[in-house]
Structures are given as structure tokens and as C-alpha cells.
Design brief:
Helices cover about 25% and strands about 35% of the residues. It has about 250 residues and is α+β, with helices and mostly antiparallel strands. Helix 1 (about 10-25) crosses helix 3 and helix 2 (about 35-40) crosses helix 3. Keywords: DNA-binding, Transcription, Transcription regulation.
């Protein structure tokens, strides 16, 4: 039961829940329901709703429609460089997982054919994958790969680091990339895969990567905005000197 002192009960409950979320529950764990909390602490469900709502606003908790309220997971902070998603997650002590949703060979869209240096009649490998970290959906990827440089790619194990596979099997080492980053709301299909509500913020990375000066990969990735952030180093060089090639994302 909560005390009847000068501190409002919703504020008392908020601090109790803050302590539970930070010190007792693992990231991504469910929080007791409003009914359970109201009974446990002898308050109204309106008081519970207000306390939980404040912690949601702070980003400590998140509500998932139809499922309940959960503690948030810390965001993965990515510093832009050309690296494997699998290796990056392992370096951070997280367990990476890849779900292959589709792997086909087909004619790419005209803009992709141009970026990969293909003729309009040439085909490319198309991979649609879901990337997870510690069991949580992190990103949805749709990538096109130069079939002439990567024969038989679709017969390989595509559930691990693709960059490691390209280096080991094809001696293709992706060295540079040109990347665009933007923010948008998740469409219904992407939201379902990422386990978020439609319209939730996602970071979109579009990159074309090269090996030995030849384009190999045209990739678009949608990362959950609540689990992923990007840090980059910025230098002020008014004369244009210096190296400002921030390439990357994680595969």
C-alpha cells in the first residue's frame, strides 16, 4: 500500500515502477497489468495509468497494443562504418539472428540495375531478411546483389554474416559504400515484422557498396527507431579539406 503523505500516489507509484524497471526486470520484460498493480498497491487503475504513462513518456516503458506494457531495451548505438550486422551485435555482447524471408534471382528495378552496373536484361540476387538482436526484431533488409560476381549465392547459408560469406566464398571484400539515411513511418508489412505499430518511426538506410571499385550490393534497411541510433564524428573544415567519407550501416 502507498502512503498518504504529501507526495501524490501516482508519483509514489511511478518511482516504485521506475525502480522495478531499472533494477528487477530485464530489458523487454512485461510489466504487471494495470489491474495487478492497482490491487498490489491499493490504488485506482487511473492512478496506475497516470504513473505508467509518465514512464512511457520518459522512454523507460513502452506500450504494445494488445500485448501490454514492457520495459524498453537500450538502443544499439551504431557508428557508421562498413561492417557486418552479425559481428557488430556480437561485439556488443548481443546475440544476432537472421531470418531469411525470401531469396530469389530476378530482374531488378531499373534504378537498382543502374546502381549495380547491370544491363536491363540482366538478373540479380534479391534477399529479404529480418535481423534480430537478443531475440528482438531490429531491422528488415531488402538487398540486391550482382549475380555475375556472386554465382550460386542463393545456394549458400544466408542466415549468418553475409559480408563474411562474400569474403570467404567469393573473395569479395566490400570496401566502400555510399549511404543515404532518412526517417519515415513503418508501413504495415514492415511494422508487423519489426513488432511495432504501423507508422512507428524507423531509420531507413539505403546503400550501394563496392569491392575493387565494382558495385556489388544495393541494400535498403529499415531499423526500429526505438532500438537503434546512429553516432557520427563531424569535423568543421570550411576549406573542404579532410576526409568526410562516412560510410556504413551494419550487415
Amino acid at each position: 500500500m502507498l502512503g498518504d503523505g504529501p507526495t501524490p500516489k501516482h508519483a509514489q507509484l511511478r518511482e516504485i515502477l521506475r525502480d522495478i524497471a531499472c533494477n528487477e526486470l530485464l530489458p523487454g520484460s512485461p510489466v504487471p497489468s494495470e489491474r495487478e498493480l492497482a490491487q498490489r498497491y491499493g490504488v485506482s487503475r487511473l492512478t496506475v495509468r497516470e504513473a505508467v504513462g509518465q514512464l512511457v513518456a520518459e522512454g523507460l516503458l513502452r506500450r504494445v497494443r494488445g500485448k501490454g506494457t514492457f520495459t524498453t531495451r537500450p538502443r544499439v548505438d551504431a557508428q557508421l562504418h562498413l561492417a557486418s550486422f552479425t559481428e557488430e551485435m556480437r561485439r556488443r555482447g548481443m546475440r544476432p539472428e537472421t531470418v531469411l524471408l525470401q531469396a530469389t534471382e530476378q530482374a531488378p528495378p531499373p534504378e537498382v540495375a543502374t546502381s549495380l552496373g547491370l544491363r536491363r536484361d540482366q538478373r540479380a540476387h534479391h534477399l529479404h531478411r529480418l535481423r534480430k538482436a537478443d531475440g528482438a526484431p531490429m531491422a528488415v533488409e531488402r538487398g540486391w546483389y550482382h549475380a555475375g560476381l556472386l554465382p550460386g549465392l542463393l545456394r549458400q547459408d544466408l542466415s549468418d554474416s553475409l559480408y563474411t560469406l562474400l569474403a570467404r566464398v567469393y573473395d569479395v571484400h566490400l570496401e566502400r559504400g555510399t549511404q543515404t539515411v532518412l526517417a519515415e513511418g513503418a508501413d504495415a508489412a514492415t511494422a508487423a515484422l519489426l513488432d511495432v505499430r504501423p507508422g512507428s518511426p524507423v531509420l531507413v538506410f539505403h546503400r550501394v557498396s563496392t569491392a575493387r571499385g565494382r558495385p556489388v550490393e544495393d541494400m535498403t534497411s529499415w531499423y526500429r527507431g526505438d532500438l537503434y541510433q546512429v553516432t557520427m564524428q563531424l569535423d568543421r573544415n570550411p576549406d573542404g579539406s579532410g576526409d568526410h567519407r562516412h560510410t556504413g550501416g551494419n550487415r
